[in-house]
Structure formats: C-alpha cells, structure tokens
Amino acid sequence: MCCLMPSCAICNFLRGAIIFVKHRRAPYNTGLPHLEAIMLFDLTDLRLFIHIAEHKSLTRAAERSHMSLAAASNRIKELESRFGMRLLYRENKGVQLSPAGETLLAHAQQFMQQVERLKSDMQQYNNGIKGHIRIFANTTAVTEFMPEVLGAFLARHPQVNVALEERLNQDIVRGIQEGTADIGIAAGPVQGQGLEIINFSTDRLVLATAPDHPLADAGSVAFADTLAYPHIGLHEGSTLWHFLNRIVSEAGQRLELRIQVRGFEAMCRMVEARVGIGILPQSAALRHSRTMKLSLLELTEPWALRERSVVVQTLERLPHYARELVDVIRGIGPDGKE
Hints:
- This protein is α/β, with parallel strands linked by helices.
- The protein has helices at 9-17, 43-55, 58-64, 69-83, 99-122, 139-156, 169-178, 223-226, 239-250, 264-272, 282-289, 320-330; strands at 21-23, 37-39, 88-91, 94-97, 131-137, 160-166, 183-187, 196-209, 220-221, 231-234, 257-261, 277-281, 295-299, 305-312.
- It folds into 3 domains: 9-123, Winged helix-like DNA-binding domain superfamily/Winged helix DNA-binding domain (Arc Repressor Mutant, subunit A), CATH 1.10.10.10; 130-201 and 306-330, D-Maltodextrin-Binding Protein, domain 2, CATH 3.40.190; 204-305, D-Maltodextrin-Binding Protein, domain 2 (3-Layer(aba) Sandwich), CATH 3.40.190.10.
- The strands form 3 sheets. Strands 5, 6, 7, 8, 9, 10, 11, 12, 13 and 14 form a 10-stranded mixed β-sheet that branches. It has a two-stranded antiparallel sheet with strand order 1-2. A two-stranded antiparallel ribbon has the order 3-4.
- A hairpin with a 2-residue loop joins strand 3 and strand 4 (94-97).
C-alpha cells in the first residue's frame, strides 16, 4: 500500500489529484446534494476505510492508520457527508458496511492496488520509495519455508516490506478476493472464482511417533487407526487443526487431544517425549527428525497428499517485486528448499 509519507512525491501528487469533482447542478438524480460541492478525499481516507472493513472496528482501524479514534471518526463522517449517504452502521460490537460502503470498499481496494503498482513501476527512478507486500499463508508456509524465502528475498530488496499473516485456507482466498492480501499460500484444494491458482509443490501429511510407540514400525497407517492414541495438536487457529478436525467430524469420530502447541517443533518435542503422537507435513517432520528421535509413518488416506498453491488476483497486475517473490515461491521443492 501507499507509504503516505510527506516526502513521497507520488503520494503528494495523488493526494491532490485522486478525485476532484465540481458541479453546480446535477444533470440527473445522483442522490448527492444539489448544492455546489467539491468532493475531495485522499489516500488516507481510502486506506482507513479498508482497515475498517478488514477489522470491523473503527478503533483498530484508527490504530492501523496511526491516528486517533476521534480523527478516524471525523474522516468517516466527512466522507458520509460528502457522499450524502451512510457508509457504516455503528453497532455495539463494531461496525458493518452499508451497501454503499461495500461499493466504496471495492473501488478503494482496486485503486490502492493500482497505487502500489504505480509505485513499483516508478521505483527505479526514486530509490526512496518503499514497496509493501501482504501475504496470507497457512501454518506450514509461515513456520517452515517462508522464513528462508523471505530472508533471501528481502536481502535482495531492502526497500520492500512484507506483512506475513497465518490464516485458514478460506480466509486466504477471501483475503485475495477482497484485496486485503496480495499473495496467498494455501495447501489442499483451493477454489476461488476469478483468481489465479498456481500449484508449486506437493507435500504429504505423516504421523510422527516416538521410536518405541506401538505404531512406530508399521511403515504406514490409516488415520482411523491413530485415533486410539492421544494426539498432539496445533493451536485452534491453525489450518492443520481445522482440517483434521473437519475430517474427524465428517467421519463421526473423535480425536483425543492430549495437548495443543503453537508450532511443529513443539509438536515434535512432545512426540519425542512420549506425550502423544502427531500429524504434520512431511517437510516439517523430516527437518525435525534430524535432531529428534522420531518415527515417521505415511498416512494411507488420499487427502494426506496435499498440493501447495500460490493464490493471486492477477499475476501480471502485481508489482514487479511481488511477481519476483511469487517466482521464488514457485521454485520451492517438497523439502521446502529452492
């Protein structure tokens, strides 16, 4: 998104030139006031409105926009006054967009994406401009291969900032559709009408046990056979937890969780300590098995094999540095290496 810094020439130009409409009388019923009016709103207004839609909270949007709650509220009131219509419904638990607000949001997201692309194209002429990439990714991507990918990428692009957030698959797709994220990284079946879905590698879910566990020498095992033993699970906000929970629920079975942890390393340490068994991606399991005593078994279910995908609105419309990051991700192999 736009840097909104006073020193940015592009932003200063856009602040004054985004929209300037002047009319003395409406040629048809537009729903706007018929008095002489000048409509002016800047990138700060648009960015604030996008934050409000994303968080459903004026307070959190104000914090994200680095302004006071009163200032944010006044900006929204001014927008509603200039349009002559309500953009938000204030509720006890937050705010909701009105139909007019939904329309404004769609245009604001598209416009800010174009601003980012403009910044990217102009970056070669002004080394002071920073780029920004927002990524929604699943648990495996965030914890396993994106740290190395981003470390190498940001070393080559020191003027680019990245926001990486762990999200569920459906939230990743929604974020790309709504424009709140530029790049999504998901695992398993991904459906998103009008989006570009690029498969870049395949991973497999495996079962990790302690070497002396009753299942340790089986070689492969059906998921149903693991349910007789206590499991180590990821936290409830993780993609893998939601996926396995859905599998169990659809089968009318029950998964006994001994403990839930924040990451695959913690899961493997619990498995090694014989607290329980755990299901995790093979790439993560192989990495941790180099330093821990683990037995790894293949799961026989077809769903254990999972495609990794990059999800974007339109690849060609991304800034050049974001397209380069997608190329790096596409080069990742099953072991998480380029």
